[in-house]
Automatic annotation (TrEMBL):
It comes from the Bacteria. Keywords: Hydrolase, Protease, Thiol protease. Gene3D superfamilies: endopeptidase domain like (from Nostoc punctiforme) (3.90.1720.10). This is C40 family peptidase. The keyword Cytoplasm does not apply. Belongs to the peptidase C40 family. It holds the Pfam family NLPC_P60. Residues 55-183 form the NlpC/P60 domain. The lineage of its organism: Bacteria, Bacillati, Bacillota, Bacilli, Bacillales. The keyword Transit peptide does not apply.
Length: 183
């Protein structure tokens, strides 16, 4: 067996596993025919479905985050879902877990999960990371929600809880460090 055909079989097997695990699958005569006649077409169709599932999860994460505005309290170093007391990273951990996406606790740890995303390529549901106390060091996280905005759990002069902020306003542009796509 050549490396190329072995790779195709591995990819097809992985895609099939993903669809069995998520309850999705190839349906209809066209898709079944495409899978039989051209494995690459089936992979593309299945990848689009996986992307759609991921987009739905990210939309649900954003919706839950917004629904918690005015209900969550920021407490540094705290992860208490029963009282809705979180720091920034336990908040992201909590809302991502609602969609079966596991994040570590700690913004620095979360900044190493998933895959890197350039700021210009941000999509809703991506994690955005900042330095808010030690320059150049990740110590704050939020969730990008689109249109240059992100949602975060934070504390400030007149803020304690979940708010929506602008990536391009205030001190955020100079404090922005990186972004990651998880899930």
């Amino acid at each position: 067996m050549t490396n190329k055909s072995h790779l195709k079989k591995l990819i097809i097997g992985a895609v099939c596993f993903i669809f069995i695990a998520t309850g999705s699958g190839i349906t209809g005569q066209h898709s079944a025919h495409a899978a039989a006649s051209n494995p690459n077409t089936a992979i593309q169709e299945n990848a689009a479905t996986v992307s759609s599932v991921s987009s739905k999860k990210k939309a649900a994460i954003i919706a839950l985050s917004k629904s918690l505005m005015g209900k969550v309290r920021y407490k540094f170093g705290v992860n208490n879902p029963s009282k809705l007391w979180f720091d920034c990273s336990s908040f992201t951990k909590y809302v991502f877990a609602s969609q079966g996406i596991s994040l570590k606790w700690g913004s620095a740890a979360q900044s190493k999960q998933g895959v890197y995303v350039a700021k210009k390529n941000l999509q809703p549901g991506d994690l955005v990371f900042f330095s808010v106390s030690k320059p150049g060091r990740v110590n704050h996280v939020g969730i990008y929600i689109g249109n240059g905005k992100f949602i975060q759990n934070t504390i400030g002069k007149s803020i304690n809880g979940v708010i929506i902020s602008d990536l391009n306003a205030g001190s955020y542009p100079k404090r922005y460090i990186t972004a990651r796509r998880v899930g």
